Amino acid sequence: MSPILSVGMERWPIAGAFVISRGARTEATVVVATISDGADIGRGECVPYARYGETVEGVVAAIEAVAPAIAAGMDRATLMAEMPPGAARNAIDCALWDLEAKRTGVSVAARLGLSLPHPLVTAYTLSLGTPESMEAAARIAAERPLLKVKLGGAGDIERIAAVRRGAPTARIVVDANEAWSTADFDAHMRACRDAGVELIEQPLPAGHDDWLASAKRLVPVCADESLHVASDLDELAGRYDAINVKLDKTGGLTEALELVAAARAHGFAVMVGCMVGTSLAMAPAVLLAQEADFVDLDGPLLLARDREPGLLYRGSLVSPPEPALWG
Questions:
Q1: Nearest-angstrom CA–CA distance, 175 and 150
Q2: Please, which of 67, 230, 299, 326 could form a disulfide with 262 given CB 3.0 to 4.6 Å?
């Protein structure tokens, strides 16, 4: 039987609200690609992201358009060549990996040479808010070993200090989501250094970050919105110390593996991150993140409920996926 590609949209409520510099959300809208050959089924989940010009409807349509090629036997290499990076390609690529594992009985972990993938400590995200609300949130999460703090520009010096007061022993990374400017960069950088922040994600807007090459980076700086695929790395050299690899940006696990290898060759530290989605979206990223310097795969922890079966989280420790979920 020829493989049949189908696609569906799902809405998952967020516990409270997820707030960053670009706005707030109370639910995660995900798109799931399913590929069936009549005997086995592979699945992949993606999260369309408006920041990159994506809509749910557009991603669904892009996946549906590939159905004839999948039926004709399109493999992952051809998918990479013929479809641009982004959420739609991610869902199909991950579904193909899952289907291959189900067909062959050889797990994705084994195919990647991960004989014993291990649990990982993931960051836990604190949404953007007032210094007072963020200090309160930090106190609740203070026992988690690694916190990721969303920032928003004005008021960030106070926010950084407040989170450190609330979680005096936690490791901290911060994510400005492009909200800083060259005018406030040095002051924000000093506040991060003084609070013991280990990494700063995307302080300046993508496309306007040349200035970082001459900036005094008191804390390592990580590219997120400025980075999508391996071919972006040459341009980022000298501006950034680390990169954030997300499957929805790379367009799947296949490209993400190449990106991580290329990043290491360029001397970048690596974070493996995520959009807010369910365990199905996190599962391939957990395998990708086995040797990452920073792991930010807390999407299901931010939801009011997760799909079942899902990944096993023990506090901030996330275990590799079981075959019933993915891979």
A1: 5
A2: 230
Give me the active site residues, please. 150, 246
Same domain (yes/no): 106, 196: no
Encode pLDDT of 256-305 as tens digits.
Answer: 999 999 999 999 999 999 999 999 999 999 999 999 999 999 999 999 99
Boundary residue ending a domain (111, 144, 159): 111
Is residue 92 located within the same domain as residue 172? no
Instruction: List the one residue out of 327, 326, 270, 275 whose CA is nearest residue 297.
Output: 275
Comparing CA positions, the residue from 247, 210, 293, 19 lying closest to residue 226 is 210
Dmax (CA) of the chain: 62
Spatial separation of the C-alpha atoms in residues 249 and 216, rounded to whole Å: 28
Q: What is the pLDDT of residues 187-214, one digit of tens each?
A: 999 999 999 999 999 999 999 999 999 9
Helix (H, G, I), strand (E, B) or coil at 157: helix
Q: Are 32 and 7 in contact (CB under 8 A)?
A: yes
327 domain-assigned:
no
Residue 323 counted as domain residue: no
- Neighbouring C-beta atoms of residue 25, cutoff 10 Å: 15
Its domain, for residue 206, covers 120-318
pLDDT number for residue 112:
94
For residue range 42-100, list pLDDT tens digits in order.
999 999 999 999 999 999 999 999 999 999 999 999 999 999 999 999 999 999 999 99
Residue 325, domain member (yes or no): no
Question: How far does Cα 50 stand from its chain's mean position?
Answer: 15
150 and 263 share one domain: yes
How many domains does one find in the chain?
Answer: 2
The rounded radius of gyration (Å) of the Cα atoms in the chain is 19
